[in-house]
Amino acid sequence: MERFRWFILEPIPRNLRQLADRLNQEKYSTNTTLGFQLHEVRSSHIIGSFIEKIEFTEEIRIPTGEVLSLARVDFQNVDFSIWPDSPSIEIRNAPRSSKTFFSSLSRCFNHSTSITPISANISSWLGALESIVGSISITQLEIGDIPLSGSISASLLIEGSEDVRRVAKDFYGTKGGQPRRMQISFKTSGSTIQCELSRTGARVDSDAVSRALPILRDSLQKALAAGTRAKSYAGI
């Protein structure tokens, strides 16, 4: 499975070619320990990698009891895409920590922008996705924040060989529980795609990424936009 996470840039970068010029000013080379490497630059998107060279010393105890110190080098890559709409940043198979990547990206904006992970309403995301692909089957659903008492809540995992929504609806909505993660399957272009949606991203079968990702991104944008409108209306 390929893992994808999305982040919101505020303000949204509209001129991506200008942004690419800034990223290229911090281009990775053999003379640097970190930097960007751009693979594709278009007015509609930027695709690239952030490379960080990590040097460390590994200590190995040899049979004589002595400790041998060896200089090691490792490279950590962050594969990313940037779009001129929200969510603007997409990261594929993110390493455990992407802090250096985000710090370097922020520097390219002269620290004038904020970068925050999405917190999607999964039910809204699912609804937006269904409006695009039609019927969707949920075979696994994790529900959290199910109230048991004033100070105690529970999490629940429901799974089955058929759509679990009929059973799951008893544990969220009016009950107060919130979907956290779901495994779904749907058909597009004559083939079945399986993936997992969560509040911060998605996991997609490796052989289905090229077909699934544009649909997931499009539906996520619609869900986030609907959430923003709902917050605006609530504040009136």
Q: Can you walk through the features of this model?
A:
This protein is α+β, with helices and mostly antiparallel strands. The protein has helices at about 15-25, 100-110, 120-135, 165-170, 210-235; strands spanning about 1-10, 35-40, 45-60, 65-80, 90, 115, 135-145, 155-160, 180-190, 190-200, 200-205. Helix 3 (about 120-135) crosses helix 5 (about 210-235). The chain has 5 helices and 11 strands. Strands 1, 2, 3, 4, 5, 6, 7, 8, 9, 10 and 11 form an 11-stranded antiparallel β-sheet that branches.
Features:
single chain, 236 residues, alpha+beta, eleven-stranded antiparallel beta sheet, 26% helix
Biggest β-sheet strands, sense, barrel: 11 strands, antiparallel
Supply Rg.
22 Å
- Distance between the terminal alpha carbons, to the nearest Å? 42 Å
How does the helix and strand content classify structurally? alpha+beta
**With helices defined by DSSP (H or I, 4 residues minimum), what is the helix count?**
5
Q: What percentage of the residues does DSSP assign to strands (E)? A: 35-45%
Using DSSP, what is the number of strands? Answer: 11
Low-confidence stretches: 229-236
In terms of quaternary structure, the protein is single chain
Helix content: 25-40%
Q: Round the mean pLDDT to the nearest integer and report it.
A: 88
Succession of helices and strands: EHEEEEHEHEEHEEEH
Shape verdict? globular
